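Annotators were shown the component list below and the corresponding predicted structure, then asked to write short factual statements about the assembly.
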Amino acid sequence: MQYYKTARGNGRYIGQTRSYTIYSDSIDSPVKVEKKPADIIPGELVFNYGPSTGGMIESVRIALSTPGEMIRSVAVDPTYKLRTIKLSGLSLKDAFILVERINGYHSSSYQAAFLKAVEDALLTEQNTGLDEELILQMELERIRSHLNVLERLCEPAGFGVPYHQIAQMREEVTRVISSIFGHRYFFGVHNTPKPSVRIPSGIVTRTKDIETRFALLFESLQDSKIFVNRLQGNGKIEKVWLVGPAARAAGYKYDARIDSPSLDYGRYGFEPYIEDGKDAFARFLVRGNEIFSSFAIVNQIISNGRPDQANLMNIHGTGIGAARVESPQGDLFCYLSINNGSVERIEFCSPSVSNIIAFEQSMQGNIFTDFHFNWESFGIWISEAGVEIE
Amino acid sequence: MNPVYFSLLITAVAMPVGIWWRKASYALVIAGSLEMAVFTLLGSGNLAYPLAYFSLIASIAWILISIFSMTYSAGYGKWLTPLFAMTVFGMMVILESSDYVTFIIGWEIMSIPAYASIGLNKEHWNAAYVFMVFSEISTVFLVIGAIFAVQETGTMDFRFQSLTSDLPLLLIAIGCMTKMGITPFMISEWLPIAHGNAPANDSALFSATMTLMGVFGIARIMLLSPSSIYLGFFMLAVGVLTVFFAALFAYVSENMKMLGGFSTIENNGSILAAIGLYVALGEGVLKTYLLAVIMIFALAHSVAKTGLFIGIGTTRKENFSEVDSSKNSFLTLGWFLVTMSLSGLLPTIGGLGTWMLLESFFMGAYQYGLIGIASVVAGSMIALAEGLASASMMKVLSFSQVHGHPKGSMKNSEGYVLLSTGVILILLFVLANFLIQPQFISGLPSVLVYNGFTIQSKFSAADFGLISPLYVLVIIIFFALAAYLVFDRRKGKLRIVPRWNGGVDFDQYYTSFAYASNIRLMLKGILRTRIRDGNRQMSVVDVFWFAMQSFASGYRRFARQFAYRVMNSSITWYMIYMIVAFMLVLILAFVI
Amino acid sequence: MRTTIWFLKGLRNGKKTEKFPKAHPEEPPLWPSKLAGNGTPECPTNAIEQGKWNAGKCISCRLCLPDYKPTGDQSSFRVSGKFPGILSRSFYLYPVDSGTCGACNTELLSILAPQFDASRLNIFFTNTPRHADALVLMGVYTEGMDQVISRAFEAMPDPKLIIALGACAISGGIIGKRPHLSKDSVIEIAGCPPSPYTILEALLRAREGKR
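Structure shown to annotators:
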């Protein structure tokens, strides 16, 4: 480990992996967090939502304790679709195929965390070419992920036109990704023997066009009183343990792009966007504005032509590495120990775990109609929260 | 001798009989009530239209309650039955009284056993005290009002002697309103608290008929008094406020009997509002129409409220959360009809009453000046409250029935009583044409509605609104049958699939508390909704309740001190002493 | 000119829907698409055995490059069995996530994007299995969702279909084994994840079925 030290908690709290507590500058021994079972007060009922319901993209069961109308407490159970993914003992190449599929929608963040951990463990020199390519991947993914969140926010508001227009942009971004990386979800980009990244001609015009149209739409959404009213004051949270857009919407300048050494964003002049509304609307604004900053980075990279690519899959060696990257929903941490080219132990700390807890707390005292807006504003992915990695 | 007096005699006999033979006593009460109803219909007795209706209404309620009591009262000890008979006897005295003294003596005979049966039922005497305090306040006002009236007319007889001032009406109205649970005392909750603590048959008796005596008292003096716009407005304002708050508190009540109590207050508020409009108006068609409104509404309230408390009694429980009611289709149908009537829906007499009441305020809006404005405000408030009342009745209907079990604790006969109450509500609706003055009955022969089948509302020669009960019923039955026949035949083609709860078991049900929480949150300011302990618990604080409770407990403290000093004996004897003392004071007041 | 009326904004945006399925896909992805080639390259899911490529097992990992190459052909799905003609007018899908990585879920939702606009072809999503014609299974077998899936299928009215979407649901892919009900599926939409073109074409083919 070159960047991370095993020490007492240093820097902001990121979260827990199976055997460590992660801070922004160090990793520490684990803290046992016990979840108290929900108590039921007489006259109250537990409204069951899920695990299988059309309103949610993934399978998740949400139990809303309510004395009627108002939500007193929320318990999110992401374990219904609990997958067990066995990585230890696999070669880096085989493990990589599975790592991509921990959260398919944010696969490039997982790829980046994994690859940077490999680099940290086995290489002494930082490969800047790989960085640029990973940043391109991740920023495109961030644009698509944030678009998805905004799209999902329009849906419960019954805003059909912006909903479909954002869906259209999301599909266009996916096609841009597909044309650069060959796969719509970045799968297998780093497995190929030959370079699989290409920058087709005219792609910059295309991204700039999407950006212009999004700017208009984003402005119109902010002008819409009906839309803004649904989000303002909804799901306020200012607890200290927040990551990603939820933290930046609560006024914290938390962003692995500036406070993690894993990926070098310095040269793109990146500065995180901060809001202090603490509510769903602030998270909406943070996401919308991050789309612009991501487009700026993407356009810089693709204007320079094809980034370098490195194949780390056939490296042999032994070592321990750690990496932290900013996935679209917050800090994603990967701890990896490699023994002679195969994975000995691997642990992830994914942002959705923190976001689920933040969601649960922010929902208290809100009313039922706020539920969907607040849920979508956190952009939680169950596939990365309800997964066991061995 | 007037044949109606026989019913008094029979009921008097029922009192001692009740100590040993429960069912026989109830049978005697039924006989007494039946005889009273029959002879009132035949035109005997002291009362003529419109006051004769009160005897009729009360008799119907007594008969239904007594039949229900035969099985219900089994577990309540030997004193409940004689006290019940005594209360009924007291009310009969009120109805047949021809002078102020008899009226007030009847009032006391009615009230005294009521304290006792509330107190005997519960370990805490608190509820009985609250009931007693407000009863005695009411008596004090009645006595003072009567003294003024007697001074004015120079005679104790109150049958034909018109009053020249509105002061006796004001005082007697306040006395009666206390008994009805209205105005400052209104949300005092004495009524719901006291009723919540009484056995269900007593609750029915108090709610349906004891408060009716309050209406009777006001109506009796109202007919003798001159019209007075200020007194009228006072009653109207008090009535409308009562209607609104009572409907609101009924909706958020978790105790079923308390909900019934508030519903009673709400209905009494409506009647008082109508009385207020009557008192405010000068002579005219609308004034005559209002008499019909008061009668029909009181009739609907009393009979349906009897049904409501019988229904609550069948659950053998106090709170919605504990209900495990019996699944019985007769019971469900009875519940349905009774709650329909209390919701003000057709085809029941409650629907007709609500229609007539609202019509009278709509017509009031055509009056010039203040009365017009007041009518618009009052009408809209009452309409709003009626909406809330429908919602509370939905709550009663669903939460007392939905989570039922096939085997409950009630007897089948109780289901029949409730069903017959429901059927009576429909019958009264259909027969309402015979209960209303002929000047409001007409027809529309051009559309095959023959003369005598429609009820008109009007404030001048032309009609304002129309309703034809029999035709309404026929149309409803026709469409219901048609729908049943059409869909029943398609049974084979229906796709029936299991329920779906996100893929997991059903282990939670909607609660009655949650049902009313929308209003708790929306009207936070009025209901003083508090969310205690962070986000942990939602509760409603009732400001009126605080005021009244402290008043009652202050009285109780005083009384207890008095008891310790003077008697130093058991609380039961003290109660009896208090009552006797009070009656002595009354008699002295009249003698002097 | 800026307008605050969403309807006008929508009109101004113009028509974005592709001519697909009448015309060829405008921008078909290379991965996943039908693979063609020969030899026995490395394959972590044994999708290539004895020179034959099995679409249902392929996870688009690209390890078989350069022996096998993508053709861009999106029609990698299999439709078997008979379908009631009653579904041809409107086709309601109830998606169930048994254990996905999230990619199949979003690709399925993408068929509602204006480029594909499944609603114009009378394909809809429903929020409860009680209104569904077809259950769309996604992801690998997981213990928690097993009973939920069977309950969803029970709650559906007849006639009903099962659609297996994605490599995980068809064969278990690389993560695990396929969900139990997947063996009864009559439509298999291959890909990791299947592209919206594939999904849409398969759904249309299934719906046409036997009239």
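Statements collected:
1. Chain C has five helices and ten strands.
2. Chain C has two domains: 35-70, 77-208.
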